[in-house]
Write a structure and sequence with these properties.
This protein is α/β, with parallel strands linked by helices. A hairpin with a 2-residue loop joins strand 3 and strand 4. The protein starts with 37 loop residues before the first helix and ends with a helix. Strands 14-13-15-16-12-17-20 form a 7-stranded mixed sheet, sandwiched between helices. A 6-stranded antiparallel sheet has the order 8-7-6-11-10-9. Strands 1-2-5-4-3 form a 5-stranded mixed sheet. The structure holds zinc ion. The site of zinc ion has 8 residues, from loops.
């Protein structure tokens, strides 16, 4: 990829497009010893006239340079190496060799200050007792960002923009907030198993860097950042560590109870009660909620533990927990969610409510014994999510009208289809909320109940106790419900009970795993439901996907040419105005924040019902449904692109 094609935040520092720095060469301390890195000399000589593009390792490819790649033998997620120029916020210097000049010279060289202005500051500095670059900063002649870039160049170090760089909380928690304040430095990532990336505004403070080495037991590579950024980050770390503080008091009782069990766990190098472990777990949870994550995965991997967040449906690595803290972190999670910490061989499930930033958040914790050790997954259940209306979800216009008309009938079946994680339950919850009135008896059977809804009887599937969807649904029907929601129809038996219930005076709401709305009819037939039963029971089928919403802070206007749309199978013949993602600190550089539903709503008209009875093929149903006004997922998606809610690429991704 050409540097100029990169979004702004991924571009190298101004004027450093001709960077000859190899992509994977972190700098080494102490800076005094750096004249020219060894690797520099060993690399083949390249045509100096031709700018050398940074060549990050292709996905799956072993990084070639001096960073030992964390071993991920076999399965497991790919590691995310830190690559200046590719890793958001991290930029390599133009040369790894330390320049011999003054910082003011570099400021002039980079075009941040004029020669005259620099001279003036140098003169003032003689009597001011402060370095000239600090005077330039105070006088507003340069920005803190520019100064930090110049310092990075001066010492041949990477520059890190902490507003874009995704800080690894496990690294940051290795030193205390008070030490970080004292040093003006903080570890922000792991370069490899033995090395930290330490961000500081002052790379010449070797004492502080030595202290960090001593305190953490890790070597450190240094990246330069601005004073403002490092202070803001230390403040944020402090906030995150205390964000979940109310949970600590709740936990103390449980912790005391578990103390005996704790003593039995012999291989625990760091205790689950140690302040750094507690702070680490809370800062990870705090960060995940702040980023709007739906799940946090703690995945054991070769002794270490990888922490990944699922944000808007996409996983990203958030932290790497060092080996010696892994057991303690898992124990901490178990204690927090009231699980048996001595039991490591079988999966356990727990629930806990915590307060994060004044918000009550329910966490569903699952521990998983894997071959690489015990891991855990935390699902973050945000109640606000279950209380969103159809409008909030993004269903509008005729689709919404058809869907509402169907589920407001006295009886019948309404199906919502889509793959796992496409927001089907949220749509059904929205329907239930709008149906939730005192004169209606609403019962649900779910696997598991995700959100507790007031005034609705919700039952959890419990297979161990012999309660599955089919048996649960049978008992529900004896309890005289008006409206029944079945989490999912997966088998013929459940399908039959549901369809028959829909024909005997109940409104049945459920979900099916099919790609599109007409596909649901064929699926029911495959499950053994006679076509005439399907035709009489089913009133409406909704197919849906979730597309990531463009970040409102950084999305940029763009014109989409007809060709781009035609490629997407949409032939409008005109260009349309839309937005494209960019990336900013508020969306952790992804360009997206939150999600919006994309819907295709098929109303089962008389004509479609008749065709179903006659055993019409899926394609025929689709074409008639479209004639009768059904928008396809892609068409609804393009409407949302036009409305500026999401991007064309995102619609193509989720409707592929
Ligand atoms: Zn943004």
């Amino acid at each position: 990829m050409e540097a100029r094609d990169l979004p702004g935040h991924l571009r190298p520092v101004p004027d450093s497009g001709d960077s000859t720095a190899p992509a994977l060469e972190p700098t080494d301390l102490p800076v005094e010893e750096i004249t020219a890195p060894l690797e520099e000399a060993e690399r083949p000589v390249e045509d100096p006239a031709r700018p050398v593009e940074e060549t990050p390792a292709a996905p799956g490819e072993e990084p070639a340079a001096s960073v030992p790649a964390p071993e991920t033998a076999g399965e497991g997620p790919e590691p995310t190496p830190l690559v200046p120029g590719t890793t958001p916020g991290l930029t390599a210097p133009r040369s790894r060799a330390r320049s011999t000049g003054f910082v003011t010279d570099v400021l002039v060289e980079l075009g941040f200050a004029s020669e005259e202005r620099a001279q003036q500051a140098i003169e003032e500095a003689r009597t001011a007792g402060r370095p000239p670059e600090h005077l330039l900063l105070e006088q507003g002649a340069i920005s803190a960002e520019q100064l930090s870039k110049a310092v990075a160049e001066r010492y041949g170090l990477d520059h890190v923009d902490l507003q874009l760089f995704q800080v690894d909380m496990a690294a940051a928690n290795l030193i205390s907030v008070s030490s970080a304040r004292r040093y003006g430095a903080l570890p922000v990532a792991f370069v490899d198993k033995a090395t930290l990336l330490v961000a500081t505004a002052d790379p010449t403070n070797l004492l502080a860097l030595d202290d960090i080495k001593m305190a953490t037991g890790f070597d450190s590579n240094v990246a330069v950042t601005s004073t403002e950024d490092i202070e803001a980050l230390i403040g944020r770390l402090n906030t995150l560590q205390s964000a979940v503080s109310e949970a600590i008091t709740e936990d103390e009782e449980a912790a005391a109870e578990e103390e005996a069990a704790l003593a039995e766990v012999s291989d625990m190098e760091v205790s689950a009660e140690d302040a750094p472990v507690v702070k680490l777990v809370y800062s990870i949870l705090g960060q995940s909620v702040a980023e709007g994550a739906s799940d946090v995965h703690f995945e054991p991997d070769e002794g270490e533990m990888r922490v990944r967040f699922r944000v808007d449906g996409v996983l990203r690595e958030a932290a790497k927990v060092p080996k010696r803290m892994v057991t303690a972190v898992v124990s901490r999670i178990k204690i927090m969610s009231d699980l048996n910490i001595a039991e490591k061989r079988v999966p356990q499930d727990g629930r806990v409510s915590v307060t994060i930033d004044d918000r009550r958040v329910d966490l569903r914790v699952t521990t998983l014994p894997t071959q690489r050790g015990e891991g855990a997954t935390i699902r973050i259940l945000d109640k606000e999510n279950a209380q969103r209306s159809l409008d909030d979800l993004g269903m509008d216009g005729s689709g919404k009208r058809r869907f509402e008309e169907a589920f407001r009938k006295a009886y019948g079946a309404v199906l919502v289809t889509g793959p796992t994680g496409s927001g089907k339950s949220t749509t059904l919850y929205a329907a239930l909320q709008s149906l939730n009135e005192v004169d209606k008896n609403i019962i649900t059977i779910e696997d598991p109940v995700e959100y507790r809804l007031e005034g609705i009887n919700q039952i959890n599937v419990n297979r161990k106790a012999g309660l599955d969807f089919a048996t649960g649904l049978r008992s529900i029907l004896r309890a005289d419900p008006d409206i029944v929601m079945v989490g999912e129809v997966r088998d013929g038996e459940t399908a039959r009970i549901a369809i028959e219930a829909a024909l005997t005076g109940h409104m049945m709401l459920t979900t099916l795993h099919t790609n599109d709305a007409p596909g649901a009819i064929a699926r029911l037939t495959k499950m053994g439901i006679e076509a005439f039963l399907t035709a009489s029971a089913v009133d409406c089928v909704v197919a849906q996907r979730l597309a990531r919403k463009l970040c409102t802070h950084c999305k940029q206007r763009a014109i989409l040419p007809p060709e781009a749309l035609a490629e997407a199978g949409i032939r409008v013949g005109v260009e349309i105005e839309a937005y494209v993602p960019t990336g900013c600190p508020r969306c952790t550089s992804t360009g997206y924040r939150g999600r919006v539903g994309i819907y295709s709503v098929m109303q089962m008209t008389e004509r479609l019902k008749e065709m179903t009875v006659q055993g019409a093929h899926e394609a025929e149903l689709t074409s008639v449904a479209r004639e009768e006004g059904m928008a396809t997922l892609r068409e609804d998606g393009v409407e949302k692109v036009r409305a500026g809610l999401t991007s064309l690429e995102e619609v193509l991704r989720v409707t592929a």
